[in-house]
Amino acid sequence: DILYVGGSGPGNYSKIQDAADNASAGDTVFVYSGTYYECINVTKTLRLLGENENTTIVNSTVFDNVSFFILPGADDVTISRFTVINDHINGYSQAFFLASNNNTITHNIIINRGDINIGNDNGITSNGNIISNNTISAWADGITLSESTQNIIENNYISNNDSGAICLDHSNNNTVTSNILSKNLLGISLFSSSFNSITNNTISESEDTGLFIENGAYNNISHNTITKNGDEGGVSIYESTHNQIFRNQIDDNSNFGVLLEDCTKNKVFENNLVKNKINGRWINDPSELLALWHNTWTDNYWGKPHSLPKPILGFTYLGWFGYYVPLAIPYFQFDWSPAQTPFEISTNQ
């Protein structure tokens, strides 16, 4: 069945929540253009469809609340074609909070004080969701995964967020692909997250870092364009192992192109590392002095042809002299077979 909200038809509901409550599992709630001042709790399998994503507006003015809350057990929900805003002048709100599985959030516009949260750090997981073709410009994070797996985040445009565009926290086996991320604090960040695929994204003009990994393993970072990012540069990886940084365009970042700090057994290969302040750098402490050689730099293009191996300066930190002066021993790692011409970085691999 189809239940209608707004419009002038007989029996149409005036509130989205009333239609959702009266619908049966598997029904569609169609919402006509207009502004709806409410928060919606979804407790069953439904399709919630706006008439037009630019003119069907959910304005959740409730302080510190969720505009669309998909509760545990309400699997296979689709929410599409809404503009979601929260014009409360203070505090933090969420546009979508997913606490169930296999949902689709697509073709929505999220502005002001809202974001998309998938699971949380209180033991709520949300797996197998598709988050696609949304436009997000919000006060907080863009899309956050917490303790959730097998989600697909694709073809979203996320800009001007005061925090990260896409954040994975203790989340494994997810796919983040073909997103455009511009002018956020962070582009993509992974914390204690492994076996994820980060591909074909464009990450530019982040205030801090384009792509950040801490305590992650076996992530595939490939065919991304990472350019013109800020304080920490393009790709920064800390205390992580067995990640592959492959065939990316990493250029014009104001600090590092690729930084590996306290890392082992990562592989950086076939990237274009061009016009960064420092194209490649590694840092380790003495306990990792032997293990650090297990990081591999190979077949990268370094801005010009190199007939000899390309040295990559790094440091082993021994501690601090007083409070301000680090004690460090410089060492070199090498790209033993640097590429002579730049790679063509396709976004359709």
- Lateral strand order in the biggest sheet: 1-2-5-8-11-14-17-20-23-26-29-32-35
Biggest sheet record:
13 strands, parallel
Q: How many helices? A: 1
Output the radius of gyration: 23 Å
Using DSSP, what is the number of strands?
Answer: 37
Give the overall pLDDT as a whole number. 91
Give the SSE layout:
Blueprint: E1 2-5, H1 16-22, E2 28-31, E3 34-36, E4 40-42, E5 47-50, E6 56-59, E7 66-70, E8 78-80, E9 83-85, E10 94-98, E11 104-106, E12 109-112, E13 116-118, E14 130-132, E15 135-138, E16 143-146, E17 152-154, E18 157-159, E19 164-169, E20 175-177, E21 180-182, E22 186-191, E23 197-199, E24 202-204, E25 209-214, E26 220-222, E27 225-227, E28 233-238, E29 244-246, E30 249-251, E31 256-261, E32 267-269, E33 272-274, E34 278-284, E35 296-298, E36 310-321, E37 325-335
Parallel strand pairs: 1-2, 2-5, 3-6, 4-7, 5-8, 6-9, 7-10, 8-11, 9-12, 10-13, 11-14, 12-15, 13-16, 14-17, 15-18, 16-19, 17-20, 18-21, 19-22, 20-23, 21-24, 22-25, 23-26, 24-27, 25-28, 26-29, 27-30, 28-31, 29-32, 30-33, 31-34, 32-35, 34-36
Antiparallel strand pairs: 36-37
